[in-house]
Specification:
By secondary structure, the chain is an alpha/beta fold. The protein has 13 helices and 21 strands. The protein folds into three domains: 33-174, 3-Layer(aba) Sandwich (Rossmann fold); 178-367, Hnrnp arginine n-methyltransferase1; 384-453, Rossmann fold (3-Layer(aba) Sandwich). It has helices at 27-32, 35-39, 42-61, 77-84, 97-109, 155-166, 188-191, 211-214, 301-305, 376-382, 385-396, 411-417, 432-444; strands spanning 3-8, 15-20, 67-71, 89-93, 116-119, 138-143, 167-174, 177-186, 199-201, 204-207, 223-225, 236-248, 259-266, 271-283, 291-293, 319-330, 335-342, 347-352, 403-406, 424-428, 450-453. It is globular and about 85 Å long. This is Protein arginine N-methyltransferase 7. GO terms for molecular function: methyltransferase activity.
């Protein structure tokens, strides 16, 4: 009998159900995830606990018991923090069975078994009432359901359902709110992860990129990255970081699941708008005094206050790059309109130089050429000029007037061989997307000596 597991769809940003064998080892998911990095994120843990302490005190000051709901408890860490800071009762839910079992063991080992109830369900499946999972609504919510994109793990629907079904009206929510920031840049270094360039050998163009790939709007899938590791010399800022979206987790204002905004700005320098860098921060408490920021060092609040401060390193939350559907060149002072959009799970961006916008300017980019379905690192490898020069030099020395058989996914190098007097180029490629892309290159570059095989038969 087969089982279903959830995996992140990198194109839509949502979680899809995938069929696996009944003997599938769920602990692989834990091993491959960022659980350890998250649990050892000292700043995250300290700020969550500081906000919990304040929230529990506020409830007690009103003469009420602090009933805490911990959504997505994982190992039970936040639940135990709540008990340690005076929570009267904690209900923790965790839908991923290996983690809910882990939480039970960890909680018992630390002596909190009688104060924390672990329910192996999604929060949206919890019921309230005498016969329900919760006997009463909770007055404190603590949860960490965020990813690099902030909303990619379903935070919007999680908070909305919690307020409607599981929480009291004037509850305290940790974190209280979130802000997403965006920075418009020209960054040739990052640009190589999105657009393929023509390949030249000296002044001779050996491989031209088809127009279908050049003009494709690309894919809106988030490219999570450590912006701190980008060479600053490769980044030219056309628009300095600005807040583009605000999310009120407290329930005081409704959460919007689909939103588009226009920011009428001016280019700060000459350059080509190629990408948008984003990150977010969390206001952990109701007074917005405790702030957890994922900003890179040049925009981080800690570095603004102290020049020599060490910015926390974390891999479970990073920054992200979103590539624009079409690059536009601006002069300093030109009007620059940043379009920012989100749905329930994902973000996307566009830039225009006039306010006469079309409906298509707000549309989530979808790749039509197939090339942008390659991983970002693969596209970057294809554009690695130094690597390509070494390989082309080797290819040149071997293929003269010979038949060449290519296995593997280095299609662009295989196609280059046709330019070096090879009699025939035989390429084995059984991936339909790669084959389609190769055929586009073959036709666009008028290559007559390339043959693609979908399967190999041995006689």
């Amino acid at each position: 009998m087969n089982v279903f597991i959830q995996k992140r769809n990198l194109i839509t940003g949502s979680n899809d159900w995938i069929v696996e064998n009944e003997n599938y080892d769920y602990h692989q998911e834990v091993a491959r995830s960022s659980f350890a990095d998250m649990l050892h994120d000292t700043e995250r843990n300290k700020l969550y606990e500081a906000a919990l302490k304040i929230g529990i005190q506020k409830i007690h000051e009103k003469g009420e018991k602090a009933i805490v709901l911990d959504i997505g408890t994982g190992t039970g860490l936040l639940s135990m923090m709540a008990v340690r800071n005076g929570a009267d009762k904690v209900i923790a839910c965790e839908a991923f069975k290996p983690m809910s079992e882990c939480a039970l063991k960890v909680i018992e080992l630390n002596g909190f078994k009688d104060r924390i109830q672990v329910i192996p369900k999604r929060s949206t499946q919890l019921t309230v009432g005498e016969t329900g999972d919760l006997k009463e609504r909770c007055n404190i919510l603590v949860t960490e359901v965020f990813d690099t994109e902030l909303i990619g793990e379903g935070a919007l629907s999680t908070f909305k359902h919690a307020h409607e079904v599981l929480l009291e009206k004037n509850c305290i929510v940790i974190p209280n709110s979130a802000t997403i920031y965006a920075q418009v840049v020209e960054c040739p270094y990052a640009f190589k992860w999105n657009r393929m360039k023509n390949y030249y050998d000296g002044n001779e163009c050996l491989l031209k990129v088809p127009e279908s790939i050049k003009t494709c709007s690309g894919c809106a899938a988030v490219h999570d990255i450590q912006l701190n590791q980008l060479p600053l010399t490769s980044v030219k800022t056309l628009v300095s970081p600005i807040p583009v979206f605000q999310f009120d987790w407290s329930g005081r204002t409704p959460l919007i699941f689909e939103q588009s905004t226009i920011h009428n700005l001016r280019a700060e320098c000459d350059g080509e708008a190629q990408a948008v860098f984003i990150w977010w921060d969390l206001k952990m408490d109701t007074e917005n005094k405790i702030i957890l920021s994922c900003a890179p060092f040049w925009a981080h609040p800690l570095s603004k206050n102290q020049s020599d401060v060490k910015i926390p390193w974390r891999d479970h939350w990073m920054q992200a790059v979103y590539y624009l559907p079409k690059e536009l060149r601006f002069a300093k002072g030109d009007e620059l309109n940043l379009i920012t959009c989100h749905d329930e799970y994902s973000l996307w961006f566009n830039v225009r130089n006039v306010l006469r916008l079309e409906n298509t300017d707000y549309v989530n980019p979808v790749c039509t050429c197939g090339f942008h379905l390659f991983p970002r690192t693969r596209i970057g490898q294809i554009n690695d000029e130094q690597r390509n020069d070494v390989l082309v030099k080797t290819i040149k020395s071997y293929v003269n007037r010979k038949n060449v058989f290519i296995m593997g996914n280095g299609f662009y190098l295989a196609l280059l061989a046709s330019k070096f007097n090879a009699d025939k180029i035989y390429i084995f490629e059984n991936n339909s997307f790669s084959k389609r892309i190769m055929n586009d290159f073959i036709q666009y570059n008028d290559m007559k000596n390339v043959i693609i095989f979908e399967d190999l038969k041995i006689y």
